[in-house]
Fold this protein.
Amino acid sequence: MTYEQALDYLATLGKFGMNFGLGRIEKLLALLGNPERRYKTVHVTGTNGKGSTTAMLAAVLKAAGIRAGMYTSPHLTDYTERFVVDGEPISRAALGAAISHTRGFVDAMVAEGWEHPTEFEVLTAAAFHHFAAAGVEYAVIEVGLGGLLDSTNVITPAVSVITNVALEHTDRCGGTLAEIAAHKAGIIKPGVPCVTAVRGEALDVVRREADAKGAPLAVLGRDFYGEAAGMDGTRQLVSFVSSRHGDLGRFAVTLLGRHQAENAAVAIMAALVLADGDKRLSPAAVRDGLAAVRWPGRFEIVPGSPTVIIDGAHNPAGAAVLRAALDEVFPGRPVVFALGILADKDIAGVTAALVRPADSVVAVRPLSDRAAEPSAVLAGLAAERSAAASTVAEGVALAREMAGPDGLVCVAGSLYLVGPARADVIL
């Protein structure tokens, strides 16, 4: 397949929806020769921060001289972003080849009478195949949704990571923190170390699962500590202390915001766990990796007139940390938000956490079949400080116009908005 043919094929798989269960992906991977067993893995889940933490760990592995893959979702502008080796996205031609190769085995299993795999299952299998063909030593795998029944949960990693737990996907993972935590904790494997920043009731669930499976558990705030410690030019400093490793000093991180300091601490601890079996992952490699990591669309500052912030905050917890970062980096400045949210998200919770009385909102429809209409986003906001827009380009242009040359614009609410908006602003 060409890249375009691969996209057309993936589009046809949308009719299979989100169909939880591991039977289909296990069968597909078996037909492919179980490529996921040909390298070591790190498995990352969490309500927020899992993508950033995945990117940090992949950058650390690269800095250590280790050939590493990274699988994330969704993408911002191009499917090639989901399959990364040594910091480089897969080429369009190679993505077409990987999907084409995988499709042959999809067709074979369906011919045997198996239920058809979903789009995400096909992508996951293709990524695992690509990483094996590329000869990676490690692959850092981000969970798509939840954990327990996610298609990625067929691996036995060297370390599991659970960044945090908040209410999200309540229609699929349960309506309480404990139920959602149980899905996240589903990635914990017998005897495999787990690193987490989960707190409170959710931590109790994670702890019980780790104990039941004999998995050593390292908890932020108990076994290791990480805090924002100022700035070094354009990079954030993060102090790190571990009960096992002592005070390792400060690490410079390219990703900004106190929430990224927490994600960095989790990534550092996970790398130190990996270092028990691979001495290439030295503190110096960790330091170099964090200083070089790139993760677009997460509190990404686009300088110019006006200044534009692009962030994929899409739930109340993510909106709260985005608001805190805005207040920290741009204190006292009113914000014009270009805000687009998916209909299955807590829209009222996002707007309540994010929007202040001095701010303005342009509601935009993200490029997704699951998008909420702009009217739903504006429903809880005062009409005199809100405006509607129908497309991403129109919405971002209107927000910039409202902000004026010296103003501050923040594009947020969904990666299905952030990706196209980023292309409009930067490219």
